[in-house]
Write a structure and sequence with these properties.
mainly alpha
């Protein structure tokens, strides 16, 4: 997979002179606006969970983009821990259980929208079949090995499912007031007028801006910028987040997009676009995210901040 991604990055640099930088800049700006929208949705969910506190948007934005920045370069969603830690620092009396629940509520909406996009792709017959998934023709697919070795893949999936179930049961049984803390995280959803007024519009804006950003990136790499093609890109991005083994899911996204764009653009052009857009977004997310960490903590050594927080002191810088 690493070799395939490195090859794709090489193809991107070979096509660099063909990039229209104006549209690339519009795509980056739209992506930043998307971060504003999704952080606002999360802030409103957290505010409903802690109505006695004033949850400031700028802190939730900083925490959100910090997590996004870490996720951009570290696989397996490591940035989510950073996001929750920074948010907890800014809200008196907040608990990780409740903050995780607010993230779950936000993710459920995203999963519903992403599922609709994937179902649309299925009806359009643009996704690779099992014969393609289990073949070496998609070498950079993060979880392609599971299709090539189905028995091992099913065993591992079953073990993960059992482990997750046992972990939830263990936590629910031992953590005091666990259910109450989880329910608090879903307070925004229980207040349906508030949820429909203060959360859903921001999440819809988030998804709209995602498609607009993709539209600009398509223009930047001189690929037909149509709603159909933008949706194909979004589907590939959604599928890449299922198992983010590579940073930003770059390998999986590249594999799916090259296959789905086989009738839209040449393989080299599709590779250049896929990797170029992902590398650009990784760079933007990392710059914004680590800038937020620096501004919020005064250091980029987040582990020292966490250790100092547990000890009740100031972090060593």
């Amino acid at each position: 997979m690493i070799h395939a991604v490195a090859h794709a990055i090489g193809v991107f640099f070979d096509h660099l002179t063909a990039v229209e930088w104006k549209w690339l800049a519009f795509g980056v700006l739209t992506h930043f606006c998307k971060l504003l929208a999704v952080s606002r949705a999360w802030r409103n969910i957290v505010q409903a969970a802690y109505p006695e506190q004033l949850v400031r948007w700028r802190y939730m934005f900083g925490a959100y983009v910090a997590g996004t920045g870490v996720n951009a370069i570290i696989p397996a969603r490591g940035g989510d821990v950073v996001r929750l830690f920074l948010a907890k620092q800014r809200i008196d009396g907040a608990t990780y259980t409740t903050l995780v629940s607010t993230s779950v509520l936000q993710t459920l909406f995203d999963m519903a929208v992403a599922t609709c996009f994937v179902l649309w792709a299925v009806t359009q017959h643009v996704l690779p079949g099992f014969d393609v998934l289990k073949s070496p023709s998609l070498p950079s697919l993060d979880y392609g090995w599971a299709f090539r070795h189905p028995k091992v893949g099913l065993i591992l999936f079953g073990l993960l499912l059992i482990f997750g179930t046992l972990l939830v049961a263990w936590v629910a049984e031992r953590v005091e007031q666990f259910k109450a803390k989880v329910a608090r995280g879903f307070a925004a959803f229980r207040d349906r007028p508030y949820y429909l007024r203060s959360v859903v519009p921001w999440q819809l804006l988030d998804w709209s801006l995602r498609l607009v950003a993709v539209f600009f990136f398509l223009r930047a790499f001189q690929i037909p910028a149509t709603v159909h093609n933008a949706l194909l890109v979004q589907v590939s991005q959604s599928l890449a987040t299922i198992l983010p083994v590579s940073p930003g899911g770059i390998g999986t996204e590249q594999a799916f997009l090259v296959y789905m764009f086989r009738n839209v653009a040449s393989k080299s052009t599709a590779l250049s676009f896929s990797v170029g857009m992902r590398v650009t977004l990784i760079a933007v997310n990392a710059i914004v995210g680590f800038s937020a960490i620096l501004l919020m903590t005064g250091t980029l050594r987040i582990r020292r901040v966490a250790e100092a927080d547990r000890a009740g002191g100031e972090p060593a810088r």
